[in-house]
């Protein structure tokens, strides 16, 4: 099978993040084949989830990633198979077409990032973070990050917390370690030009330029962290394009 990228590759010079509102999962599932597209193992995981909202988000994330991946490769949505890394990071199994993806789901939003020839992580949280979340700051941020957080105006602190959190989690999800890596072991700092940079002693110096981290605002309610690692340093950062599952993936559902 020819597993190279299609001629007009939408991912040649962009990363795409697909958004699905949780309230749209049912009609998305209806239009795309629903749980029938899942493997037996995925269906078993889905059925084990106790809360309807968790089941809905799990199903939405599975269906969204399958539909999205099929846009960039000649593979039917139900044919994708996934393996998990040491810390549980899902990756495309077999002929991956150079694709890497990552998903996140939170109350109200499911998002999937897709890149080709790079590695990506994504995380979404409601913003601003609740005041109660501040108690976790000393555990998840470095002393310097905590100081920066504390110096935010009070009304901004919840947004600053959410931004820092999603940037750090997106980074650990791209590395595949997730929360198995202590979040206070590395930091994300804002640069003078407004961009973000990861400061992590564990990244070899030669690889530091390969990383890009950013936080996007979604629908006024969510902070979306994106981390992308390039394979070669000469490729530079990738623009990140936000796309809506409805209507961009399923225009007929949007019209109905
Ligand atoms: C990955 C992790 C950071 C996600 O946290 P979260 O904020 O609850 O969830 P998100 O919605 O952002 O992401 C969940 C998705 O990330 C993906 N994911 C799972 N493990 C991952 C990992 N190690 N790296 C990257 N992505 C991962 C999965 O697709 C998962 O979706 P699913 O739960 O529907 O299977 C967290 O679950 C984690 O650290 N897992 C590693 C394994 C673990 O729990 N170890 C215990 C400590 S060592």
TrEMBL record:
Transmembrane segments: none
Molecular-function GO terms, alphabetical: holo-[acyl-carrier-protein] synthase activity; magnesium ion binding
Pfam family, one: ACPS
Domain 4'-phosphopantetheinyl transferase: 121-226
Alphabetical UniProt keywords: Transferase
Transmembrane helix among keywords: no
Source species, domain of life: Bacteria
Keyword Transferase assigned: yes
Example of a GO biological process term: lysine biosynthetic process via aminoadipic acid
GO CC field: cytosol
PANTHER family: L-AMINOADIPATE-SEMIALDEHYDE DEHYDROGENASE-PHOSPHOPANTETHEINYL TRANSFERASE (PTHR12215:SF10), PHOSPHOPANTETHEINE TRANSFERASE (PTHR12215)
Family label: Belongs to the P-Pant transferase superfamily. Gsp/Sfp/HetI/AcpT family.
Protein name in UniProt: 4'-phosphopantetheinyl transferase superfamily protein
Species: Streptomyces sp. gb1(2016)
